[in-house]
């Protein structure tokens, strides 16, 4: 495998979910290894922690230290905590994590991505200092005929977006 290609499975250029996944992984790879930025995993870590807490609360709800009437507050407390944690998790997933691709720590920049409906274009949106910058990339230009991501070409688009002011 050449150094100019991200080693990912061959993608179907007609599958937008798979394309977005490969392009998001490529974006993270470029930012982390080529441009030497520190990746901020806060969103991913928060989702994992909230999911583990909800799973633990679900398992704890099955454990009755006392018969039903005496364990009433046990169940009520679990339900209330579960609603709070699950509500926070839902908020992150619906409003903060929607379209999220990757974030870097310094400078504080968030990248969002999306396949543009009914077109062969992929859009990367960069949020920096409460301003949004975006770039549209034709998908066929950043993949070779075998369906491999052309990392140096994709890196050029990412650098253009980062340096855009």
UniProtKB/TrEMBL annotation:
<feature type="transmembrane region" description="Helical">
    <location>
        <begin position="71"/>
        <end position="95"/>
    </location>
</feature>
<feature type="transmembrane region" description="Helical">
    <location>
        <begin position="41"/>
        <end position="65"/>
    </location>
</feature>
<dbReference type="GO" id="GO:0045047">
    <property type="term" value="P:protein targeting to ER"/>
</dbReference>
<dbReference type="GO" id="GO:0005787">
    <property type="term" value="C:signal peptidase complex"/>
</dbReference>
<dbReference type="GO" id="GO:0008233">
    <property type="term" value="F:peptidase activity"/>
</dbReference>
<keyword id="KW-0812">Transmembrane</keyword>
<keyword id="KW-0256">Endoplasmic reticulum</keyword>
<protein>
    <recommendedName>
        <fullName>Signal peptidase complex subunit 2</fullName>
    </recommendedName>
</protein>
<dbReference type="InterPro" id="IPR009582">
    <property type="entry name" value="Spc2/SPCS2"/>
</dbReference>
<keyword id="KW-1133">Transmembrane helix</keyword>
<keyword id="KW-0472">Membrane</keyword>
<comment type="similarity">
    <text>Belongs to the SPCS2 family.</text>
</comment>
<dbReference type="Pfam" id="PF06703">
    <property type="entry name" value="SPC25"/>
</dbReference>
<dbReference type="GO" id="GO:0006465">
    <property type="term" value="P:signal peptide processing"/>
</dbReference>
<comment type="function">
    <text>Component of the signal peptidase complex (SPC) which catalyzes the cleavage of N-terminal signal sequences from nascent proteins as they are translocated into the lumen of the endoplasmic reticulum. Enhances the enzymatic activity of SPC and facilitates the interactions between different components of the translocation site.</text>
</comment>
């Amino acid at each position: 495998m050449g150094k100019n290609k991200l080693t990912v499975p061959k993608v179907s250029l007609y599958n937008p979910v798979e394309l977005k996944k490969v392009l998001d992984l490529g974006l993270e790879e470029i930012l982390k290894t080529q441009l030497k930025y520190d990746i901020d995993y806060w969103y991913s870590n928060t989702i994992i922690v909230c999911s583990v807490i909800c799973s633990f609360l679900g398992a704890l709800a099955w454990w009755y230290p006392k018969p039903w009437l005496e364990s009433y507050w046990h169940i009520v407390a679990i339900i209330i905590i579960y609603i709070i944690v699950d509500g926070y998790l839902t908020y992150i997933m619906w409003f903060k994590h929607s379209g999220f691709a990757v974030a870097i720590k310094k400078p504080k920049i968030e990248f969002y991505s999306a396949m543009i409906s009914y077109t062969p274009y992929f859009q990367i949106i960069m949020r920096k200092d409460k301003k949004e910058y975006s770039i549209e990339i034709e998908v066929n230009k950043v993949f070779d005929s075998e369906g491999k991501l052309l990392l140096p070409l994709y890196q050029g688009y990412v650098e253009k977006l980062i340096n855009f002011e």
